[in-house]
Design goal:
Structural class: alpha+beta
Shape: globular
Number of domains: 3
Strand order of the largest sheet: 1-2-3-4
Largest sheet: 4 strands, antiparallel
Number of strands: 13
CATH topology of the largest domain: Immunoglobulin-like
Strand content: 25-35%
Radius of gyration: 21 Å
Order of helices and strands: EEEEHHHHEEEEEEEEE
Number of helices: 4
């Protein structure tokens, strides 16, 4: 069943016969529903579907971060930030053959931009029992423009064991040279703990006005 958004002259939302109506980037879209195929799917088609499923589930764990990280790049093309992130990582960050495809975290990009990254980046992990601190530090080029020194750090850790992300998309200024992201190790309950033991770690920097950003940088896998 479809409904008319904003009255009789509004956009159609939902299914209407063989059509589907929805809103995308503020625009009303009406398209035909694809007819189900009766052909047997090839290995290539199955591999494509698997890559898409792997990456979309991964990106979904960090949606708000991606909305910042790929926003500037998405303004130049039609996809949304998350669609652009999915497209990039399907092409560049999946390794292996179907049905054993997986993410290569060293090739993942969670931000896309042209701003310069710091001259040096370091992460130290501090295990505090129930929590883990990821202590990021970086250097600043003395010739860097003053405006760039107000860029904010973006920190993200992905936890493959529970398929979840923890992040901060508006951290310390570039000029502060360090920041900390703290996470809990137990993601279950007291009686049924689910402990994480390692993380894939990323960093990026975004301009104060959010109109420019660096590429993300893979800091490595950290065990604790």
């Amino acid at each position: 069943m479809a409904r008319l958004k904003s009255g009789p002259w509004g956009a159609i939302i939902g299914k209407l016969g063989n059509n589907i109506g929805y809103i995308r980037k503020g625009m009303a879209i009406l398209r035909m529903r694809p007819a189900p195929s009766t052909k047997k799917r090839s290995v290539g088609q199955k591999a494509t579907t698997q890559r898409f499923q792997i990456v979309t589930k991964f990106i979904a764990t960090m949606g708000d971060f991606i909305n910042v990280g790929f926003d500037v790049a998405a303004r130049k093309v039609s996809p949304t930030a998350q669609n652009l992130a999915v497209s990039y990582n399907i092409k560049h960050a999946i390794v292996g053959d179907y049905p054993n495809q997986e993410i290569d975290y060293t090739k993942v990009k969670v931000c896309e931009g042209v701003l310069p990254l710091p001259t040096s980046i370091d992460v130290v992990v501090e295990d505090n029992g129930p929590t883990v601190k990821f202590m990021y530090s970086w250097g600043v080029d003395p010739n860097l423009a003053n405006a760039r020194k107000r860029d904010q750090v973006m920190m993200l850790v992905y936890l493959p064991e529970i398929k979840e992300s923890r992040f901060l998309d508006s951290g310390a200024r570039r000029s502060e040279l360090h920041d900390v992201l703290e996470i809990y190790k137990n993601h279950g309950s007291v009686n049924r703990p689910i402990m994480v033991t390692y993380a894939e770690v990323y960093i990026a920097f975004v301009a104060n006005d959010r109109n420019s950003i660096t590429d993300s940088y893979y800091c490595g896998r950290f065990e604790f």
